[in-house]
Amino acid sequence: MLPDTPGHPGRWWHALGDGRVQCDLCPRNCQLHPWQRGACFVRAHADEGMVLTTYGRSSGFCLDPIEKKPLNHFLPGTSVLSFGTAGCNLSCKFCQNWDISRARSMDRLMVPVGPADIARAAQQCQADSVAYTYNDPVIFAEYAIDTAYACRAHGIRNVAVTAAYMHPAPAREFFPVMDAANVDLKAFSDSFYHRLCGGRLQPVLDMLAYIRHDTMCWLEITTLLIPGQNDSVAELSQLSRWVAEELGQDVPLHFSAFHPDWKMQDLPATPHATLRLARQIAHDAGLHHVYLGNVHDAEAGTTRCSHCRHPLIVRDWYQIRHYDLDPQGRCPRCQTPLSGRYLPQLGRAGKAFGPRRIPVHFSHQPHP
Questions:
Q1: Is residue 87 one of the residues assigned to a domain?
Q2: Using 50, 70 and 90 to split pLDDT, how confident is the model at 110?
């Protein structure tokens, strides 16, 4: 065991025969000497092999609206119990959660909270789902999978907010227990991934195709538009066409505004005009549901029928102002089904959770 470091037996690794082990969780393929940590900082080579040092240790819990993940076609109006741990297997220079994802001290993590504890808390808080977020759940996959099974035993759904930088074998265990995922597609350029994220594009595209075509996990995609880096008309056109042709026209795509942060504070925020242009390009490529994030734009938050364009869900930030789906999730005007996962009514008991963000503490009985 790593000195003074708690650890849970890790999966997806193999011994190299020279005293090192290789982590087989993600395309980084970290090869670790004894007592060495991987690039994510939370998976390490201990005496017995690979361990996950953040299993059961969270950086915090909050009740959020599901729309904040962002998921616009998955249980609209419901609440989700959100949590994360620390570390990340990408090194994005523009990370907007860098205080968590780039954390190198485990001291910031809360007291241990096991999978069964999280499932019970979600049930007591009347959350309809649990979200693995804040940092990428790929790197705490063992913890996320165990928690997902515990939640399913209580009828609670599971949501992954992830960059999907993962090998196929662990993905075949991870995504089938997730009911929805919002995948952060950083850009449509391998050089962008290499320069600014320390990764590669193709594994992410492969994972998107796997989620969409080989699992029952509902998929939405988010791309943060960074001025001068991934917002050219050519790249946005390529990205949008790929999503429409390879994943389908009904996969929701969110374009989100960049704000200077972490190691890219010398760039300006994304102009609203750039976001609107990106949305138009995606619509022109055939995508039916394109949204804008981190900006106030009611039209770009509205879900419309893909056939008759009737407004079905009108949003103002995370507040649902109008909901007009029938109990089967269809347009009331033309009966076209709206792609996604829906309850027979909006939110819980016909009332949306709203834009609230409520911290949940495990030092006492959780409450909504």
A1: yes
A2: low
What residue numbers bound the domain in which 340 lies? 60-358
| 366 within domain boundaries | no
Q: Would you give the end-to-end CA distance of the chain in angstroms?
A: 38
Q: Nearest CA to 179 among 194, 159, 198?
A: 159
In total, the chain counts a number of residues equal to: 368
pLDDT value of position 342: 96
Q: b/e string for 305-331 if b means 16 or more Cβ within 10 A?
A: bbeeeeebbbbeebbbeebebeeebbb
Q: How many CB atoms lie within 10 A of CB 255?
A: 29
Let me know if residue 67 belongs to a domain.
yes
CA distance 317 to 357: 13
pTM of the model: 0.94
d(CA 274, CA 50): 44
Count: domains in the chain: 2
Q: 17 or 138, which is more confident?
A: 138
Kindly report, residue by residue over 199-250, the tens digit of the pLDDT.
Answer: 999 999 999 999 999 999 999 999 999 999 999 999 999 999 999 999 999 9
Assess if residue 3 is contained within a domain.
no
Is residue 126 within 8 Å of residue 176, measured between CB atoms? no
Which H or E run contains 162? strand 157-162
Same domain? For 350 and 244 the reply is yes
Residues 302 and 315 sit within 8 Å (Cβ to Cβ) = yes
- One domain for residues 46 and 82: no
Q: Which DSSP letter does residue 231 get?
A: -
Q: Say yes or no to pLDDT of 282 above 80.
A: yes
